[in-house]
Design a protein that fits this description.
Distance between the termini of chain A: 109 Å
Shape of chain A: rod-shaped
CATH architecture of chain B: Alpha-Beta Barrel
CATH superfamily of the largest domain in chain A: Ribonuclease P, Pop5 subunit
Helix content of chain A: 55-70%
CATH architecture of the largest domain in chain A: 2-Layer Sandwich
Number of strands of chain A: 6
CATH superfamily of chain B: Metal-dependent hydrolases
Largest sheet of chain A: 4 strands, antiparallel
Radius of gyration of chain B: 16 Å
CATH class of chain B: Alpha Beta
Number of strands of chain B: 8
Structural class of chain B: alpha/beta
CATH class of the largest domain in chain A: Alpha Beta
Strand content of chain A: 15-25%
CATH topology of the largest domain in chain A: Alpha-Beta Plaits
Oligomer: heterodimer
Number of domains of chain B: 1
Strand content of chain B: 15-25%
Number of helices of chain A: 5
Number of domains of chain A: 2
Shape of chain B: globular
Order of helices and strands of chain B: EHEEEHEHEHEHHEHHH
Distance between the termini of chain B: 14 Å
Order of helices and strands of chain A: HEHHEEHEEEH
Chain lengths: ~160, ~210
């Protein structure tokens, strides 16, 4: 009698263990499938996603006895940037003189957030334009043109 | 905040204008190369000018003669080594505050010099205008030296080396220029424009 009971118990244990193995197998399979999906999604995202270029506005001030117009200033900045970092960086930065007040001798340059430092570096090495000596001082970098204009007209930077 | 410090400006006149521009850029102290000034320190427009001397020497004997008693008249003493012996002497000697790195001295500033300067806590001075005026090959050599000294954790001081008013460089521009050209972290550049020079000035009782 005891032997029959033991056989039954052994049979039940073996069936339960078999069931557990099957359950675990299906669970692992499901987890693997989900992981694969996540990884695939991440890879696809990384491959397709291009970082958005945010604009930066650099407010600058000019110290010089001479007057300069907007076009020659922008040309000089582009020329120095190309000289310092090359044409590819110039294309990436694309510095545009969006605003210039000849009376105050202050202006705003628009560039991308990744190339901000390149433009700042190029500004520092402009020493003259057509033989006219000048010094460009970057005052502040902002994210909006509205704020840039506000800074341009409010900040006190008289020598 | 104490502001930025430019330890090397090489102008002889128009100091008030220079002070005005420097103030605008955020500088509080300027190391002015001696052009026969009778003062040691002088203040214009809230910018303090500190007299400095740059000693050029080719032999140990020459540097020993030139550096003798110089600390009495000049709060900042920089050495421009034109031989290895002078470079090593400048790294060891307590009277020299800085060792200048420019196109004339790049050959003598090497690994051994870096480890010696680290041992004696002597800062290296990098002149930005000298770097910009150098040829492409020299620029490459200066670039490698700056990287090496960063690797050895030697303190580096950045100065403009301006010889005209329009050669002064804004600290932000210096950090932008070096972080893009030389791949040096911005924080360490700012440190080299403010804290390290301030330590030198404090040590020499200028503040």
């Amino acid at each position: 009698m005891i032997q029959v009971i033991l056989v039954y118990i052994a049979l039940i244990i073996s069936i339960v263990s078999l069931l557990i193995v099957l359950l675990m197998y299906s669970l692992i399979k499901r987890i693997r499938l989900q992981l694969d999906l996540i990884i695939k999604k991440d890879v696809e995202e990384a491959l397709t996603k291009v970082k958005k270029i945010r604009r930066r506005y650099i407010v600058f001030s000019i110290i010089s006895e001479h007057d300069f117009d907007k076009r020659e200033l922008e040309k000089a900045i582009r020329k120095k940037l190309a000289l310092l970092y090359g044409i590819i960086s110039l294309a990436k930065a694309d510095p545009q003189l969006v605003f210039y007040d000849p009376r105050l001798k202050r202006g705003v340059i628009r560039t991308s957030h990744v190339m901000k430092d390149y433009v700042l570096a190029a500004l520092s090495i402009i020493r003259n334009i057509d033989g006219k000596q000048l010094l460009i001082i970057p005052i502040k970098t902002t994210g909006t043109i509205k704020k840039a204009k506000k800074i341009m007209y409010t900040i006190k930077t008289k020598t | 905040m104490n502001g930025y410090i430019d330890l090397w400006v090489n102008v002889s006149s128009d100091l008030e204008r220079i002070a005005g521009i420097a103030r605008l850029m955020g500088y509080r102290y300027i190391g002015l190369e001696d052009h026969g000034f009778k003062w040691k320190t002088r203040e214009f427009n809230n910018v303090k000018f500190v007299k400095r001397i740059t000693i050029e020497a080719r032999s140990e004997k020459e540097i020993r003669e030139k550096i003798r008693g110089v600390k009495v008249n000049y709060p900042i003493v920089a050495v421009k080594p034109l031989s290895i012996q002078v470079a090593r002497f400048a790294a060891r000697d307590g009277r020299a505050d800085l060792v200048v790195l420019d196109k004339d001295t790049i050959e003598y500033i090497d690994k051994t010099q870096a480890s010696m300067m680290k041992q004696f806590g002597k800062p290296l001075e990098v002149c930005i205008n000298c770097f910009l005026k150098a040829s492409s090959r020299e620029k490459g050599m200066i670039f490698r030296r700056i990287r090496l000294f960063h690797y050895y954790s030697v303190p580096i001081v950045y100065s403009s080396g301006a010889s005209r008013w329009n050669e002064l460089i804004h600290p932000k521009s210096i950090s932008a220029l070096l972080s893009t050209l030389v791949d040096v972290p911005k924080a360490s550049i700012i440190y080299g424009l403010s804290s390290i020079p301030l330590e030198i000035l404090t040590r020499n009782n200028v503040r």
